[in-house]
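Q&A FORM
Asked by: J.P.
Topic: structure of Family 43 glycosylhydrolase

PROVIDED:
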Amino acid sequence: MNKKKLLSGILAAAMLMSTVILPPQTVSAAAEPTEIVLDKSTLGNPIAGFNENGEITYAGDPNILVDGDTVYLYVGHDDTSSGGGYTMPDYLCYSTQDLKEWKYEGVVMDMADVAWSDNGSAWAAQVTKHNGKYYMLYCAENKGSYGKEVGVAVADSPTGPFVPQAEPYFHETVTNTSTCEVKNPDTGEITTAGALYGRKASFGWEDIDPTLWYDTDENGEEHIYMMWGNSNLWMCELTDDMLSIKDQNGDGKITQGVNADIWYQNISGIEKIDGVDYTEAPWLYRRQDADGNYYGDFYVFFASHWREEMAYATCSPDTFGNDSKWVYGGGKEGYGHLMEPTATSNTNHPAVFDFEGKTYFIYHNGSLPGGSGYRRVICIEEMQFNEDGSIEYIQETSTGISGTANQILDSTSTPLAHTKFNNSIGDPDKEYNYPKVNVAVTASEDAAKADALWEIEEGKSDKNEDAYVSIESYNKPGMYLKATGAGKKVVLSRDHNNDTKSDANGITADSKNMTFRTLSGYNGKGVTFESVAYPRNYMAVEDGKLVLVDYYDSDECVFEIASKENVVSIAAQKTTRAYKAGSALSTNDIRLKVTYEDGTTQWKTDGFTTNASAINMTTAGTKTLTISYTDKGVTKTYDVPVTVYTTEQKTETPVQADIVITGEEAAMEDLPEAGDTATAGGVKYKVTKVDESNADGTNGTVSVTGITNKKAKKVTIPDEVEINGYSFAVNKIESKAFYNCKKLKTITIGDNVKSIGKNAFKGIHRKATFKVSSDAYTKVKKALKSNTGFAKKTMKIKEI
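REPLIED BY: S.T.
REPLY: Here is the structure written out as C-alpha cells.
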C-alpha cells in the first residue's frame, strides 16, 4: 500500500474519503468561520514506510523485481532510534500491481539467520528470478575480521523466506585497487587501477551494493554478471547456479585482475568533487523494445559525490564485461547528473525498472516524520529517455507518480513559494546544515514553478480530522509548512523530531505545528488556515511574507487552492436563463467548471467577469452572456444564451437552452435522470429526484447505496455530490449501504441526510464513530436507530 502519509500505507488503501471542496459560503465580517474539507493527496511518495499494523517503518536501499504482473520492492529495514549510524536487522518486502497501492509482505530474511554476518547490517541487495527460484544478492558486515562482504540467499517464493548460503562469495581482502591489474585503454599497457585511475586502496566497506545482469552472447550462451562496490566499482561473472563466482582462468581460486575473475570497472568523464566521483549503489539496466528485446547501450545508475547525487553512465555492448568502458552520461555534454542530493538524506540508492510500457526510477530519502539518512523511505518517479538514449534530470518530488500538487494563491492571486535553495552536496560545514529548517515562505510571482507547488495531505497531528491538513513542499519532500511561536512565522521546515524517530503513528514534536484546520474564507471566499498548535491564529500574507495573525476577517487570511496546470477547457451552469423583459440579469447563479491539463477540475462561483451590464434586457429575444475567466495569464471566454420574453410571448415556460461554448471548450454533460447511478470518491449513489429548475441550489437528490472498497476504514458522506457536473443533495443512506464493512470505523455524515435505511451500518467496526455537524446532530442521532446497525453501547456520535 502507500503513503500518505505513511500510514496511509495500509491505511491509504483501506482508507476511503469522499472529500468535497465546499462552495464558498456567504458570511458576515463578524461571523465565525466554519470548517470546510479540502481534497487531499493520499497517494504519491513515499511508496512504503509501514508494517503489517500500519505503523511507521523506516527502510532504505531499494531494489525491484518484476515477476509477471506483480512488482516486488525489497528494502533494508532501518531500525535506528536516534542519531546516526545504521541498525538494520532484516530485509522487508512490499508488492503492488499498479505502483500506487503497496502491500506489506513482511520480513523476507532476518540477519540473525546469516551465520557470517553481525546480525545488524542488512545493507543493499538485489533480488532476481532464475530457473524457477529467487536469489537475493546482499551485503553485510562480516562478524569476523573482515569488513562488508557480498553473499547470496535462495527462496522458492518472491516473498521468501530467503535462506542464506553459509559463506559470502569472497572475502573483502580479495579486492584491492593497489594490486588489481587493468589495461590502459590508450596504450594497452598493464598497470594497476590505483596507479592508472588514482583510486582508493582497499577498505572495510568497499565490497557492498551488489547488482546483476543476465546477458546472452552471440553464441546463445547466457552469462550472469554481478557488479558492486563503494568508491571502487567491480564486476565478475557468476556460475549458472548463482552460488559462486565463476573461475575464469581455472586456477581454482578467485582473484582480481584483467585476466582473472574479478574486474575493475572505470567510469570516465565524471567530475571529482572533494576527491569523490563514483560513490556507491550501482544498478545495471538496458532498454527493451515493444517485443521485449534488449537494445542499445548498457546503463549503470549509481550514487556520486557526497552528499550523494544520482547519476548514470553507459557502456557499449561490445565492451561490456571484463573490458567495460563506462562513460559518464554516455559522453553527451550536460548529461549524467540525474538528481541532486535529497533534502532529507545524506545517501541515496537507485533502482530502475520497466512496467507496463514505462520506465521508473526508485530511490530513497528521509521524508518520513523523524526521518534522516539513517531512517529512510522509498520513493518513485517516472523516467524518460531521449531519442539518443540520454536521460533528463529527475526531480525528487512529494507526489511521485500518483500524488497531486497544487498552487496556493493569496488574495491577490500570487502563489506561495519557499525561498529557493539547492540541497547541499557537502556535509554540514559546507553550504548549510542538515536538517534544513526555518526556510522563509513568501508570496512571489517570480518563484520557480517547483518552489511554488504544494501537496495538501491529511493532518499530521490527527488523520481522522477531515478538516485538518498538512502542507508538504512538492520539490523538497519531507519539508512542511510549520507555524512557529517565535515571531509568529510560518516557515518551511523538516519534520526532523530532534534526530529521533517518530512514534508508531508518525507523531512527532512538530506534528501540531505542521497541521492546520481549514475554514471557510472571509466574506465567502476561498479557504483560511488556522494553526492547530496555536488556536485562533491564522495563516496570512503580510508584506509578502507568510505569517500567523490573531484575526481571520481580512483578505490577508484568504487563500485559493489552484491547479499547477494550465486551463484547457471550461464550462458553466446557470440556473436561470429566461427573463421577463425589463428584469435584471442575474450572474450570482453561475457555477464555473475549470478543467486543467492534468485532467483535474475545479468549480468556482466567483473570480470571473461577464458582459451582463452591457446586455439590453428591455427587448425580447436571445441574448449572449459572455463569461471570461483568466488563470495564469490565460483568458478563456464562453457564451451562454439567455432568453428575454414579454408577457404576451410567454405562453409556456421556455425551454432552457443548452450551454453554448465557443473555441476549445466542451459542452456540459446531460442532466442525470431519476434511477441513474454514479460513483464519486469511492461512494456509490442513486439519483432519487431531479429538479431542472435548481430552485434550492441543487439539481435534485441522491441516496447512498454502497462503497467501492469494502475494506475502507473511513468514509465521508458529503452534503452534496456532483454528477455529470450537476449538484445533488445527499439526503438518504439506503438499506445495507455499508453492510458488513468490517473495518469501517469513522463515518462522517453530511447535513442533508434525513433518513438511514435498515442494516445500513450492520457489521461495521464495533467501535465506530459517526461524525456530524452541530446543525445535523439531533436529526442524525434520531435516524441512527438500532435497526440501522448502530450499537449504542460501543459506537458513538461525535459532534463536529
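FOLLOW-UP: The chain has a mean pLDDT of 89.
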